[in-house]
Amino acid sequence: MAATAGVVTTATAASASGTPRFLSASQLPPHPSSPWYAGPVTAGQPDPLPMCVGGALPSISVHRAYHTDLDTTALQVTVVERSVQRAKDFAALLRKDLAGCAASVMKEDPEAKATQKYYGRLPVEEGAYVYGVHTTTTWGASDINLFSVGRDGNVVTVVRWGQMGSYRNAQVADFKKTTVTAVNKLR
After folding, report:
1. Which of 9, 22, 96, 171 is the most buried (most CB within 10 A)?
2. For the whole prediction, is pTM greater than 0.85?
3. What is the pLDDT of residues 100-131, one digit of tens each?
4. Is residue 34 part of a domain?
């Protein structure tokens, strides 16, 4: 159900129109010193676009941003495709973009260095894939981001979690649980 300014209302179950449900703030990896806050579910591409996958997100995307009081943010973007095959192709494109994420970051910003890790496939619905990307800059910034791409039928979701730090700060096990929850909520 659409509301003014592109905001989509959510309920505890998928709407009659088939709109997928989004993660609640409590379903994100726990933060040690701050609660999570969830923004509204909003139609369209997020602004700013998330690194590495943002260029592939269509205008039919629906997203929700999350944040803590400190340095941790998250984003969920969901796309309902016209067919299962289009969803398979879109998920494959997102996975390809994430597989080349570190190289793309360094190509776009010569002052950045990036490394990445692939954390594997999760056995939920048609599968979800988890990636980590660590970036550093010449001025001293160090950030860790975790991404996942999951699909259920003709619906694809991308989840991003990020904060200042490195791989040792990545909450991979908790993020995998969040990803499973996100994909299970698609239907």
Report:
1. 22
2. yes
3. 999 999 999 999 999 999 999 999 999 999 99
4. yes
